[in-house]
Design a protein that fits this description.
Length: 188
């Protein structure tokens, strides 16, 4: 009976370890990609870790507000099957996203939340990595005048040294674009 109890205990420990072996830990603070995860999780591999960033958004009058210092941290979650990011901004308006890749649609689904405006339903964008290395995400959104269009979020200039990000409203043809938020990040 003692051998059976020991065997069951070791089996439970191994199962528990397998359920969280890719999660962030003291020795691996950003976690790691699960080998069973979609290969597209590598789209965000250059982002894993922390970056020092400057965030700029539009004022009501259309001018750009003074840049706000920000730390943008990316890590693997859900035992290495998804990615979560978190922004910690000097203005104390923090935010984050959960990023999941759906193999059936071959799209990223990104769910956004913020401390500035807590909401019972998260906003979400969908998109993919383009052939030129950008990651572009869309969410249907009307312009203030009622014109149909999208909120378009783009990561670009992605390298081991950092990346840039821009949020824009675009019309349905994407010929009209109005930037409303931009971020520049450098790896420490």
């Amino acid at each position: 009976m003692k051998k059976l109890t020991t065997f069951l205990f070791l089996g439970m420990v191994m199962l528990a370890t397998a359920q969280n072996e890719y999660e962030p830990s003291e020795t691996n603070p950003y976690g790691s990609k699960n080998p069973e995860a979609p290969e597209q999780l590598d789209d965000f591999k250059p982002f894993i870790g922390e970056c020092n960033c400057e965030s700029e958004s539009r004022n009501q009058d259309g001018t750009w507000a003074k840049a706000v210092k920000m730390t943008w941290k990316f890590k693997y979650i859900m035992n290495g099957m998804a990615i979560q990011d978190e922004t910690l901004k000097a203005d104390r308006k923090h935010s984050g996203s959960i990023r999941q890749f759906q193999k059936d649609s071959l799209k990223w689904y990104v769910h956004y939340y913020t401390s500035a405006t807590p909401t019972p339903k998260l906003s979400s964008w969908e998109g993919k990595k383009t052939d030129d290395g950008k990651i572009i995400l869309y969410k249907p959104q009307k312009a203030p005048n009622g014109m149909d269009g999208f909120s378009r979020l783009t990561f670009y200039n992605i390298s081991e040294k950092g990346y840039k990000w821009i949020g824009e409203w675009v019309d349905t043809s994407e010929k009209v674009a109005f930037p409303f938020w931009r971020i520049t990040c450098i790896k420490p």
